[in-house]
């Protein structure tokens, strides 16, 4: 467990969902035939906060969970990972979501969300926002799924208005079809967020939702033209493009044996937060974020197995996913 810190010292503040994720301990087995699971806290913005904390950043999360045992589990898990939970409200009516994954194949697992009638994170309201923290934190992170429903949509937009596009304000384009009626519906609400952020990160499909093209160079151009200072386009096996007004680099992928493809993007995000705050060169930021993602892809769990600085160094030096290495 990381040592406690004062809320005014928060460096990374994320806004979004939490869940309880259940990972099958049997690979390449249909979900109906899985006999045992491992449990972990999850949800993309939750994982990003945990990943940043694992790298030594003081992180906090704005969210809602249910008034249930799994809500208590999320709070406890965050505290154990060193992430402040004071900005997490308890929803009186909705249950903390549960997510099952099916590792068939491990590289592209299927995800099954249990969020009926909806997740409590979609009830995040403007009155839940810690205004001073949002305005003062060095890095604020949110994700495209925040804009799928009200009142979460209005709360997320208000948070970005409070930020007033100060560095670093990051949007993970994070298109999840299950949250939206259609790609056009998602584009209607995700695209305007680009104009309120300083960093945008997404894969080809997510860029097409946000800026109307999946061609990486053109997508980066469109995001930069709209005032983003750093545009990051994930290209799968073709690497990651990072573009600014002054530089443009494609970072090669790091190929590892994949155990579970979930969580790699969140590990990338936590390391991205760390690198932005450290003021590293864009190429170095993405190289290390790539390594963080590769490490988690080579492990079963997400939050529990976010990498340390020493583990990222080990992979970049040896090309091997390490066993747990303490910083």
Rounded to the nearest angstrom, the distance between the terminal CA atoms is 13 Å
Beta-strand content estimate:
15-25%
DSSP summary, beta strand count: 14
Gross geometry: globular
Q: CATH topology, which one?
A: UDP-N-acetylmuramoyl-L-alanine:D-glutamate ligase
Report the sheet with the most strands, covering strand number, pairing sense and barrel closure: 10 strands, mixed
Instruction: Give the quaternary arrangement of the chains.
Output: single chain
CATH superfamily: Ribokinase
Instruction: Give the CATH architecture.
Output: 3-Layer(aba) Sandwich
Tell me the number of helical segments per DSSP (H or I, 4 or more residues long).
Answer: 10
Total of domains: 1
């Amino acid at each position: 467990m990381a040592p406690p810190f004062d809320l005014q010292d928060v460096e990374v503040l994320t806004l979004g969902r939490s869940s309880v994720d259940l990972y099958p301990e049997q690979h390449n087995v249909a979900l109906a035939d899985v006999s045992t699971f491992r449990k972990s806290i999850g949800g993309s913005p939750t994982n990003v906060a945990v990943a940043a904390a694992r790298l030594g950043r003081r992180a906090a999360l704005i969210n809602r969970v249910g008034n249930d045992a799994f809500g208590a589990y999320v709070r406890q898990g965050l505290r154990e990972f060193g992430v402040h939970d004071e900005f997490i409200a308890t929803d009186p009516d909705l249950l903390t979501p549960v997510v099952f994954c099916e590792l068939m194949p491990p590289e592209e697992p299927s995800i099954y969300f249990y969020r009926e009638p909806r997740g409590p994170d979609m009830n995040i309201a403007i009155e839940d926002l810690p205004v001073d923290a949002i305005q003062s934190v060095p890095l604020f992170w949110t994700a495209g799924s925040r804009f799928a429903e009200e009142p979460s949509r209005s709360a997320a937009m208000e948070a970005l208005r409070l930020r007033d596009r100060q560095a670093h304000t990051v949007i993970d384009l994070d298109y999840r079809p299950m949250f939206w009626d259609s790609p056009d519906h998602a584009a209607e609400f995700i695209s305007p967020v680009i104009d309120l952020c300083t960093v945008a990160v997404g894969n080809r499909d997510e860029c097409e939702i946000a800026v109307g093209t999946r061609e990486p160079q053109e997508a980066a151009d469109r995001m930069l033209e709209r005032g983003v200072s750093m545009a990051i386009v994930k290209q799968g096996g073709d690497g990651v493009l990072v573009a600014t007004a002054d530089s443009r680099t494609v970072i090669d992928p790091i190929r590892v044996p994949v155990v579970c493809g979930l969580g790699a993007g969140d590990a990338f995000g936590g390391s991205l937060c760390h690198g932005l705050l450290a003021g590293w060169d864009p190429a170095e930021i993405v190289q290390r974020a790539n390594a963080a993602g590769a490490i988690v892809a080579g492990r079963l769990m997400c939050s529990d197995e976010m990498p340390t600085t020493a583990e990222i160094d080990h992979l970049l030096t040896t090309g091997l996913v390490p066993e747990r290495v303490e910083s």
